Amino acid sequence: DETEFRNFIVWLEDQKIRHYKIEDRGNLRNIHSDEWPKSFEKYMKDVNCPFKIQERQETVDWLLGLAVRLEYGDNADKYKDSTPDGAKNTDNTAKNAEPLINLDVNNPDFKAGVMALANLLQIQRHDDYLVMLKAIRILVQERLTQDAIAKASQSKEGLPVALEKHILGFDTGDAVINEAAQILRLLHIEELRELQTKINEAIVAVQAIIADPKTDHRLGKVGR
Known about the structure:
Elements: H1 2-17, H2 26-29, H3 36-46, H4 56-74, H5 76-79, H6 85-97, H7 108-121, H8 129-143, H9 146-153, H10 175-210, E1 215-216, E2 221-222
Antiparallel strand pairs: 1-2
Helix pairs in contact: 1-4, 7-8
């Protein structure tokens, strides 16, 4: 919007940039004048803006950068030790997401406890006890939660597959490796079928929503 743009330029000059003296800002403040574009063009030259008057987005970005530099220069002591709110939140999130970060990995009790858990869960030993603890956590989350146990307990019945009836398409030169490759290919095909089934279910669900719109006669609209 032209009026908002002009008001924005005047606000930047009045509040942040302050390149002109107050008495010299009259032409720039007269936003309803037909001569305002010329005044603005002169202002851009006076502040050494490298862009043309037609390049508004670039000009706005440059003027904002100038305003920020000037604001910081006027209040350097206030801003030099400031930490962005986003960085604080990121640090807190990282700490919350990594509860193992403050553990004393050199504590003998910690080492003994990790080793006992690793032996119990049959996890391979590692020189770094923190790495072993992370492996234990992953195993517990993926295998020992109620949902994981319930899913693992569900037996799947399938038909026996004759590998010799399925052509691999290439020969590794080793019969055992050929058989392993055939098994991996069949497992991959099964995963693709499961993925296709989920895609089809999603398509059916979307079609059901689209095909059954709700009509609100008061609004004169059809749809959710």
